[in-house]
Amino acid sequence: MKCNVAIVWMHDYLDDDLPREQVKELKEHLMACPDCRQRFEQLKRTDAFLHATMVEGLHDSADAGTDSAASRALTEKIMRQLPAQRRKQGWTAFIRRHPALTVAVVFCLVMFSSFLAMWGQNSELIVRGTDLQQLVFEGDRVIVPEGVQIHGDLTIENGIAEVHGEVLGNLTVIDGTTNLASTAKIVGENRQINQAIDWLWYKVTTTVSGLNF
Amino acid sequence: MKSLEARLARMAIKGDQQAFAELVGLYQDKLYHMAYRMLNNRQEAEDVVQEAFLRVYNNLERYDENMKFSTWIYRIATNLCIDRLRKRKPSYSLDAESSEFEGLDGYSMIPSDNRTPESETLLSETQSIIHQAMATLPPKYKTVMVLRYLHELSLQEIGDALGMPVTTVKTRVHRGREFLRKKLERTL
Asked: CB-based burial of residue B139 (10 Å sphere; 0-12 exposed, 13-18 middle, 19+ buried)?
């Protein structure tokens, strides 16, 4: 056995980490090698001194009275510095535990708020259609005069639709009202959208049907 | 069955301050001794203990009950000690003015520190050599040595507490021991 291996084993032995067969081998080597024997003695003493020195003075019996008083004082200090109430960690703990869910919730929140903002935003009159030349505008009122035929669809946002003539398509009124005269004729669908949900449904269906074409 | 510490921790999470006080009672001295051996200064050791328990308190719900509570709390405290040692000037001299207590140098801090454990007993030569040698050890060796010889933790436990492989712990204990042996060679 080489001496450098023996030294590693000495340390392992002191750490209670040397298998029994190797302890035997190490002992045999120590019997044969005076240098290693001396080294081992030194290490054993260092080990013992280290342990004694570390513990020495910390559990002094003569000092026990003041020691326990001091440690009580320290306990008090520790307890006093604690935050008076445990931090309410309900939602932070939740976030930590469910990051994916949190992201989803935040995403929905942002989408919903932007949608609401979009919905409330426009208050100007918007008219969309394929045949707008014949329409008459009076303030926020959009009039389809009597005897006039509007070809295609007509969409009016933020206004009042007064229909005296004919609309040969769908009539959609968003955030407004529809007044139909007795002479009015709407070939397609007549829809009025005032609720946010209706509006969203309308937007979604138009977008989807737009995608289909 | 859950350990006593785990149960106390649970009670403390629910707001039971008394339960936390019991935890403090269980570990306060151990942490203090460790910090004192690491830092060689009573005041700093007390500060570390206080800070460690504050961290424990604020992070109680992160305590993994499969881990030994002692391992967890030792990790917190050793990290605090290592931080402090790193912040110190590399050579810690009594003549150097302490940055924390302005105008006070190391000498003026000694008389007030009359509760030093060693003050009662005259230090043997060996002990003072060991203390000096320990003071010159780099923090990473010091931590391992303190946990090994003061708390008598096994290599595995030290590895868990410091978050390093057992082989690393082993190497550090061996080197630390070798280092001290050399320092003590004359007196052994």
From this structure: middle
